[in-house]
Amino acid sequence: MPRVPFHYIDLRTFCYATEDEKRVEEALQQFLPEEFEIDRVENTGHHGDRIVILSARVETADGMRVVLDQLAALDSIDRVLEELDERVDDNCSFFLRLDKQAAFNGLVRLGEGITLRAKVEAYPAKHEKAVANAREAIELAGGDADE
Q1: Which helix (DSSP H) or strand (DSSP E) does residue 98 occupy?
Q2: pLDDT, tens digit, for every residue of 45-94?
Q3: Number of domains the chain is built from
Q4: In Å, how far are 1, 107, 109, 127 from 102, measured between CA atoms?
Q5: Which of 15, 78, 110, 133 allows an S-S link to 52, with CB 3.0 to 4.6 Å?
């Protein structure tokens, strides 16, 4: 894929007191380049329980290609492409929610637990242009995965 039409890709998940932080970090790492640094912020929930927010921002083209290659493995990639108009907002951001448990097991599925937000390059910054660019990037990543 020669061009990656994103400014950056953010991935974020929460680790609740009932979860093993190392396992949650491994689930997030599933979508990131090797040895990618994950930011960690500790917080307290409404009932005083510990919540750790794990996040990463991928800003390099090579790093974003790694994330896109993982997304290409989605068994429901056709569904994502069909819903692209709703998954890209008026600020040219593309959103997906991924299954945290599946990611820990090395699988890529839509679900709960990991939020992906990608800022789509679009000139001019219009919804339609952002949708077209996101579609191109996802389709190209899917094509690379088939080769």
Answers
A1: strand 93-99
A2: 888 999 999 999 999 999 999 999 999 899 889 999 999 999 999 999 99
A3: 1
A4: 26, 5, 7, 31
A5: 15
41, 53 contact by CB (below 8 A): yes
Are the C-beta atoms of 30 and 24 separated by less than 8 Å? no
Query: From the centroid of its chain, how far is CA 82?
Result: 18
Range of the domain at 95: 6-146
Judge whether 1 lies within some domain.
no
Q: What CATH number did the domain enclosing 100 receive?
A: 3.30.1440.10
Location of structure tokens 């492409």? 81
What 3-state class would DSSP assign to 126? Answer: coil
Q: In this structure, how many other beta carbons lie within 10 angstroms of the beta carbon of residue 105? A: 11
pLDDT digits (tens, 9 = 90+) for 10-49: 999 999 999 999 999 999 999 999 999 999 999 998 889 9
